[in-house]
Amino acid sequence: MIIYGTALLAFCHLMGLFLGDLLGALIGVKSNVGGVGIAMLMLIFLKIYLHKKGLMPNETEAGVGFWGAMYIPVVVAMAANQNVVAALKGGPVALLSAFAAAAACACVIAALSRSGRDDTAFAPEHHLEFTEEEDI
Amino acid sequence: MLEMLNKILIQNGLVTAFACVGIAMWLAGVVSRKLTFGHVHGSAIAIMIGLGLAYFGGTVTGGTKGLADFPLLAGIGLMGGAMFRDFAIVATAFEVQASEARKAGMIGVLSLLLGTVIPFVIGAAIARAFGYTDAVSMTTIGAGAGAGAVTYIVGPITGAAIGASSDVMALSIATGLIKAIIVMVGTPFAARFMGLKTPRSAMIFGGLAGTVSGVSAGLAATDRRLVPYGALVATFHTGIGCLLGPSVLFLATRALVG
User: Fold this and answer.
1) How far apart (Å, rounded) are the C-alpha atoms in residues B22 and B40?
2) Is A130 exposed, middle or buried (0-12, 13-18, 19+ CB in 10 A)?
3) Are A1 and A63 part of one and the same domain?
4) Under an 8 A CB cutoff, do A104 and B119 touch?
5) A38 with A65, same domain?
6) What residues of A are in contact with residue B111 (Cβ under 8 Å)?
7) Inter-chain contact B91–A68, Cβ cutoff 8 Å?
8) ipTM score assigned to the predicted complex
9) pLDDT digits (tens, 9 = 90+) for B19-36
10) In terms of domains, do B147 and B248 share one?
C-alpha cells in the first residue's frame, strides 16, 4: 500500500522535529536543532532495517519516492515566497556582507572538496523511478 | 463566470499552486532548452522565475510573503512553506546511501563549524567598516551573514539575546536573505569551481553554505542527487548558529573590540 510509505515518511518527519525541539531545549537554544536532519537519519535507518526484514515492497517505496520527486517543485514554490523586496532594501552593508560571506564560503568549499580522499559515489539509479532526470 | 473561476481557484489554493508551479517549471524547461541549449538547468531557471515573481508580488502587494500575498496564490505559501519543504527534504533521504554519508561525516561537521564562523567574521568586519562598531551590532549582523534560513531566526535570536536594536536586526535578516538568494542562484554557476559532484562535496557544501533554503534550492538546480547529502548537514546550521551566536561568537567579538 502506497500510504504505508507516506505514513512512514510522516512519522519520521514528526519524530525528527520533536527530537530537534527537545535537543534545542536541552542545550538551551530557542530553536529546533537539526530536526529535519534527525528525521532524515531515522528514515535512512528505518529503510535499511525494513529492507532487511523484507517489509519494503516497491509500492511502499513509491509512497516516499513521490514526495522526494516533488522536492524541486516545492523549492520553486518556496522561492516564490521569499521576501525579495526586503532583501534588496537591505542596503550596502547587507549586500556586501552577504556577497563577501558567500564568496569566502565558495572558496573554502572548493578547497575542502579537493582536499583529502573522496571515495563517495551516488547510488545506482534503479530505485529512483519517480525522480526522472531533468528534461534537458 | 470569472468570479466563479476565481472562487474555485481560491477555495482550492493548494491545487491551484500545483498547477501554477507545474506551468512555471514547464516554461523554465522550454527556456532551458531553447534559449540556453541546456546549459542552464531547468530547475535553476524555475527558481529564478520564482524569485522574480516573489519580487513582483512584494512590490505590488507590499506584503512579506512574495507571490503568496495574492489571495489567489495563497496556496503557493502552503506548498512552499516549511511543512511541505521539510516533508520533501526528508523524503529525499530515501536516496541517501548510509555508507557514503558516514564516510563524509567528520568533514561535514567541520564544514558546519567553518560555515558559521567564517561568514560571521566577514559580516562583523564589514559591519564595523560601515560604522557599526559596538560588539552587539557586529555580532548580530555577523550572525545574519552566517545563517539566513527561510525562518531568518539566527540573526533575530542572537540579536534578541544580546539586546541589539531593531534596525540592526532588520539588517541582519536582510543579510541572511540576500545570502540565501545568492546561494540559490549562484550555486549551479559555481558548481564546477566548488568541485560539487560527489556526496562528500555536497555535505561540505551543506555545512559551509548554510541556509537550508539556499542549499536545498542551489543543489536542486545543480544536480538533484546532491540534495539529500547537502540538506542532511545544512539542517543543523540554524541550531549551531543560534547556539554559537549569542555565546562564543559574541564573547569573542566583545573581547576583541571592547
Assistant:
1) 18
2) middle
3) yes
4) yes
5) yes
6) 108-109, 112
7) yes
8) 0.82
9) 999 999 999 989 988 888
10) yes
